[in-house]
Design goal:
Elements (H helix, E strand, L loop, with lengths): L8 H26 L1 E5 L2 E4 L3 H7 L2 H31 L4 H12 L6 H11 L6 H8 L10 H29 L3 H10 L3 H12 L1 H16 L3 H6 L11 H11 L3 H31 L2 H5 L2
Antiparallel strand pairs: 1-2
Helix pairs in contact: 1-13, 2-13, 3-7, 3-10, 7-10, 10-13, 12-13
Length: about 290
């Protein structure tokens, strides 16, 4: 019997080493901290699940979780339809398509902290275009003093920054549809809505699932943009889970509770993504009418 060549595993070994140093070892460190009371660098006391119980009873955490869920769902409700509409309106061929792709992708090239700074200036009533325009219209707008204005500003900022990602994914899905489907639709006299409902939307289901999961995970971990724009205020209006965790770990130096909360945070993201993925899978497979028109 010819022996199996196992040399290919040496090619994968660097990947395992990188993953171990970048993910597994830090995760084990967090697990270690979550069951100890870090009194000093040299003094630690094992406390078991005490920090997990304390975190789960934290009312501020519950409020931050509710704000985070509301924000992430609002992001999906706005960015997914808007990204689909933007992809449908983009040219399919020629130099116009290339130019549209470059223009749409521009906001994705801007670093997160710069995005927060841009909107911080943009929303000011004295020098910002948005703030000055709203003041000229008589709108009492202040993202630093009004909780609703701050929350809406953070949402609009995220929509401006990340809707192009959804649009580019949907555009790739649209370009992968063979022309034969459109030719058959024209022969049948299908309307534009029918083409979208029975051809384009089913064929975009895969990229839409990727877009939804990416945007949900990223919006659920948002930190830099609202921190630069509002600092989490006014009050706690834009203090999301990631900033709350940072305040615990860095601001208060409560490493034990912060480690326990970070593990709970990680599990919440995994659970919600799992639920969302399975729900989208069921929606996709429970549409026989749309599948029959493909």
């Amino acid at each position: 019997m010819k022996p199996i060549n196992q040399k290919a595993w040496w090619l994968v070994l660097p990947v395992f080493i990188c993953v171990a140093f970048s993910a597994v070892l830090p995760l084990m460190t967090v697990v270690n901290y979550s069951v100890q009371d870090i009194i000093s660098p040299d003094r630690r006391v094992f406390v078991g699940t005490e920090w997990f119980a304390a975190v789960m009873r934290d009312e501020e955490l519950h409020s931050a979780l509710w704000r985070q869920l509301t924000f992430s769902l609002a992001v999906l409700a706005v960015e997914i339809p808007l990204g689909i509409a933007l992809a449908l309106s983009m040219p399919a061929r020629g130099w116009q398509a290339s130019a549209a792709l470059v223009l749409v992708a521009l906001s994705l090239l801007i670093p997160w902290n710069v995005v927060g700074t841009i909107w911080q200036i943009y929303g000011r009533a004295d020098i910002g275009l948005l703030g000055a325009a709203l003041a000229w219209l008589g709108v009492d707008y202040s993202y630093t003093g009004d909780a609703t204005d701050a929350w809406i500003t953070v949402l609009v900022m995220d929509v401006w920054h990340w809707t192009p990602l959804v649009a580019l994914l949907c555009y790739a899905g649209l370009r992968s549809i063979p022309d034969a489907y459109y030719q058959a639709a024209r022969i049948d006299g299908a309307s534009r809505f029918a083409v979208f409902r029975y051809i384009q939307l089913p064929k975009m289901r895969g990229v839409l699932m990727i877009a939804v999961l990416l945007r949900f995970m990223d919006s659920f971990m948002i930190y830099t943009e609202p921190f630069v724009l509002t600092g989490g205020g006014p009050g706690n209006a834009t203090t999301f889970l990631s900033q709350y965790l940072t305040q615990k770990a860095v601001g208060q130096f409560d490493l034990g509770p912060a480690a326990a909360f970070s593990l709970i945070y990680f599990l919440i993201i995994l659970l919600l993504c799992f639920i969302l993925y399975n729900w989208m899978q069921r929606v996709g497979t429970a549409d026989p009418e749309g599948a029959s028109h493909e």
